[in-house]
Amino acid sequence: MVELKTDGWLTTAEAKALAGYGPAYLRRLAKRGDVEARKVGRDWLVWRESLLAYKDRMDSLGRAKHNPWRGDLVEHGRGRPGRAGG
């Protein structure tokens, strides 16, 4: 098999070791566009800087990351509109 990975791209196993997110969650983040990723064959490669930026953002939100009324979720059609939220 030809290795297409270049610097900056992580396999899901490497991304899990770095950020602690499992492969299924990483695929979900990639499909939603929350992290930059590419599918190469049947494998996903995650852009390291994008993953770290997402993790930093989630860490900074703390418990608020679970708030379904969070503005950024509502903007992307994934939250609950109609109530103020962080």
Task: Write a structural description.
This protein is of the alpha+beta class. The chain has one domain (9-75). The protein contains four helices and three strands; from the N terminus they run βααββαα. The protein has a three-stranded antiparallel sheet. A hairpin with a 2-residue loop joins strand 2 and strand 3. It is globular and about 45 Å long. The chain starts with 8 loop residues before the first strand and ends in an 11-residue tail after the last helix. 16% of the residues are buried. The model has no long low-confidence stretch (mean pLDDT 83).
Structural class: alpha+beta
Helix content: 40-55%
Number of domains: 1
Number of strands: 3
- The general outline is globular
Oligomer: single chain
Give the end-to-end Cα distance, rounded to a whole number of Å.
46 Å
**Biggest pleated-sheet summary:** 3 strands, antiparallel
Side by side, the strands of the main sheet go: 1-3-2
The fraction of residues assigned to DSSP E strands is 5-15%
Low-confidence stretches: none
Radius of gyration: 15 Å
Mean pLDDT across residues: 83
Return the string of H and E elements: EHHEEHH
Figure out the total of helices.
4
What can be said about this structure in brief?
Helix content is 43%, strand content 14%. By secondary structure, the chain is α+β, with helices and mostly antiparallel strands. The longest helix is centred in the middle third of the chain and has 14 residues, at 48-61.
List the keywords.
86 residues, alpha+beta, 3-stranded antiparallel beta sheet, 3 strands, 14% strand, globular
